[in-house]
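Team,

Forwarding the record for the chain on the shared tracking sheet. I've put the sequence and predicted structure together so nobody has to dig through attachments.
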Amino acid sequence: MLSSAAHMAGDYDLQLRSGVEARRRFPNDPRALFYEARAYAALGRLRELDAVLDESLLLPAAQGWEASGLALHITAADELLAHGDSLASAAVLERALSFYSQAPPALNAVPRQQLALARVMYRLGRIREARPMLEALLNEPAVTGEFRLDVMAHIGFVAAAGSDAGTVTRIDAWLQAPDVHTTPGQATEFRAALAAARGHRDEAIRLLRQAVSEGRPYDIVKHTMFEYAGLRGHRLFEEWLRPKG
């Protein structure tokens, strides 16, 4: 909690100290690496960030989930992009793709690993490769509930990147269906991200506010979410991001 609060308040040095202390006290908890990586990325300390990313490649993957190192590379890349370093962000993504494309087949067959790899490709602009990976996931028995929601939203994001307005409209309508399994505000936030990805900034901000009013947490991800890149610098978005209280 301290690490996230410090980051949202822009106190990245405090976040870094929190991460270092968390790792000292809980050396087997990979979350400390995420705290450190976010702080190093925000501070532009790329050498230290590289060291944390190297370490993350050794982390074992929990059964049924993507590799922690892959998730951390995506997190770090989004953080770098949010702080204006698009070249370093792309380099982190390329590094992740190079490493995990050579991962054991059993790991890369895990649906959540496939989603993470598709998210990397999408961020790198490789949407012709990302989209069929995402669409294939819809046939996997494990892709149900909120996981299916995540996959469908990403199909929408990739469609927006490819100017496929028909698919974007279809996904947006699906996200509003009453039988979609979602935690409070989650589907609405995905709609906000979809609107932002299409360049509809005012609609995206309206939906973000609605998602929070529905119960979606205001958390650390908001200022780094890849789809919100086009909202950065928008007065209403920056006001909404600013910590209150």
